[in-house]
Amino acid sequence: MSHLHSHTSLKLTRRLRRLRHSESIRALVRETRLSPDMFALPLFVCGGEGVRREISSMPGVFNLSVDETVKEVQAARGEGVRSVILFGLPDRKDDIGSSAYDPEAPVQSAVRAIKRESPDTLVMTDVCLCEYTDHGHCGVIIDDEIANDPTVDQLVRTAVSHAAAGADIVAPSDMMDGRVGAIRSALDERGFENVAIMSYAAKYWSAFYGPFREAADSAPKFGDRRSHQMDPANAREALREVEQDIAEGADIIMVKPALLYLDVITRVKERFNMPTAAYHVSGEYAMLKAAARNGWIDEPRAMMETLTSIARAGSDIILTYYAREAARMLA
């Protein structure tokens, strides 16, 4: 085998492998850096006390009563995750989603409890009606259609109730036209001008929300959401959606889902250069969990590679069920 040592020396002025030679040098030149500050942990809040019910399609994710939500927030805070986003499971539902703006509903109660026990945690709230309507759709149904403007009225009431409870950021996820502007006006009129809006600006009609609908009990009883969520084939349309929401006063804009729409995240960031969020959604999480449980992938590596790809695409904020696990790995 001595002939291996007699090769001709290559005359290379640049060897790109030099900067991959050790972990220290790889870390020194790393382009995309994850930090727990970037993560927002989604939490599903329900009624009752002492409730911590695992969601079968999302291992490691739970429906939590308000007291358990506070414990989860404090544990996450201890690991460096400073932001959470709350989704509610109300005790009752009706055809207009009126529990969404009940001041004693799980989300509003949880916001107050978190701000009491962990005041420096940033609390975001999801503003939508699908968890609160008995038909499971994101808005008010009139003549078998989701009626845009009456739905916006309900979303405004919901956002204002979240702000009154102490939310730092309200996040409308319904994809109705004009809701960002209506929410901004209502918040400002009531003295909540410091409450920010994170708009689900480009939210696609995706097959990857399935496990979330189990978690939030929000699957539509009939039909689907194609009339308001975006067509997965469209990217230029996302830019129009984002542009409109920025014009209406959105402070942060979001692309959802994240992994299958990395190109959209990049286009949005390059065009508008706004604080940009991406939601690593339930189905994307569940796929990694399922493959890991079958022993098919190395879950910690796959998790970090996934989150890095979302940041590399241009996302400043990542909503992910992996927030705590990733924060522990980054510690």
Task: Name a few traits of the molecule.
alpha/beta, single chain, 331 residues, two-stranded antiparallel sheet, globular, 12 strands, 8-stranded parallel β-barrel, TIM Barrel
Largest sheet: 8 strands, parallel, barrel
Q: Examine the coordinates and then state which fold CATH places here, giving the name of the CATH topology.
A: TIM Barrel
How many domains make up the 3D coordinates?
1
Uncertain segments of ≥5 residues (pLDDT<50)? Answer: none
Instruction: Please report the first level of CATH classification, the CATH class.
Output: Alpha Beta
Judging from the principal axes of the Cα atoms, what is the shape?
globular
Cα(first) to Cα(last) distance is 45 Å
Overview of the molecule:
The protein is of the alpha/beta class and 331 residues long. It has one domain (34-330): Alpha-Beta Barrel (TIM Barrel), CATH 3.20.20. The protein is built from 11 helices and 12 strands. The protein has helices spanning 23-28, 66-78, 106-117, 148-165, 179-189, 210-216, 236-247, 262-272, 282-293, 299-313, 323-330; strands at residues 39-46, 52-55, 58-65, 83-89, 122-127, 141-142, 145-146, 169-172, 196-203, 252-256, 276-280, 317-320. Strands 1-4-5-8-9-10-11-12 form an 8-stranded parallel beta barrel, surrounded by 9 helices. It has a two-stranded antiparallel sheet with strand order 6-7. Helix 3 packs parallel to helix 4. The protein starts with 22 loop residues before the first helix and ends with a helix.
